[in-house]
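Continuing from the previous page of notes. For each protein in this section, the sequence appears first, followed by its structure tokens. Read the first protein now.
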Amino acid sequence: SCTSPANPSGLCIVQVIDQDSLVGGASLFTYTSVVLPAPTLTGVLPPSGPTLGGSLMRLSGTNLVSGAQVTVGGVLATNVSVVSSVEITCTSPQLLPGVYTTSVQNVDGQVAALVSSFTAVAPPSITSVSPSSISNLGGTLITILGNNFQ
């Protein structure tokens, strides 16, 4: 016995392949459409992360099912795990700086979106340090100028 993976509706071929990669008989198998309740997306934490991606995201909603895909700004998130019907965890994708919509698409194609729910923040950059040289004894006030300091 085995557990079937999520799959679009329609015919597929079932084969048995043993440990020596020998293929046994093949048989037709039909996936039938199941109408799932529409998903909702009610929260995204954290609401921001670095443009390089890699942030652990926690999405809350309802009717979230195994096999769901998550996108942020249309870019697929990775490491998607449906914790329960009300929670998904995933890793944010690499994005340009900006504010993005987060979406969840269930295996039946239904989509839930939360507009302006994630902000990709550029990493900090330094444009100048003044003074450029100080004593190794410390105690000197240093001014650092740049962008995207938080």
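Done with the first. The second protein uses the same format. Note its length before scrolling.
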Amino acid sequence: DAYQLAYLKFCFPRAKFTLLGDLNQAIFTHENSRSLLKQLSTMFEPDKTQVVQLTKSYRSTAQITDFTAQILLDGEKIEAFDRQGPKPQVVVTADSARGVQAVQTALAQAQAAGEKVAIIGKSLADSEAITTALKAAGVKATLVRTENQRLVDGALVVPSYLAKGLEFDAVIVWDANAAKYAGDDERQLLYTICSRAMHTLTLVAVGQPTALLDRVAPELYEIHPVD
């Protein structure tokens, strides 16, 4: 936040600052993330300020990086590291019951491969609902409610606002439909959620999938309708 930095500069006028961050993950502000960089540049003397952009992503496979990059409209440049893996999967189900079954299937496949899995819901209510549904089906899953909660072994259910900064072998996005992810102002949120995945990414949508995927090249992912 520019105001926070301005206050720190006021308190420590002779200090040097190193700022690190991913502008594509500015999920808690509606302002253009590029304007934030411009604001910060006005606080320091230009000849004493250096901006270095690190464009190569090492977290995720090339398939996941290429997929997530196209969710953004005008995101900062992202260059995929040449580590191969399966294409992201988009599973479209007719109702919530089939959606829960799709989550169970993706979870079982990831755990069979020895992967650490997170199921990420948009809100806490969404995350509570999928946790309850999984437990009713006999699937053990731990809901993470606060940022201070210890990440235990086994499947985790994480609301989106706690996902930033975390990474998992496999991510299952619940419920990536057109109602929950409706507008362009949620592109950075969906990007951040999906980019938590290092090896395997599955998006489960109950009903119509989010239109935020419409501009992603069809060859970058696989879609599976479930009647």
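What the second structure shows: The helical segments are 2-11, 33-41, 62-69, 96-112, 124-136, 187-194. The CA atoms of residues 86 and 200 lie 7 Å apart. We return to this in next week's lecture.
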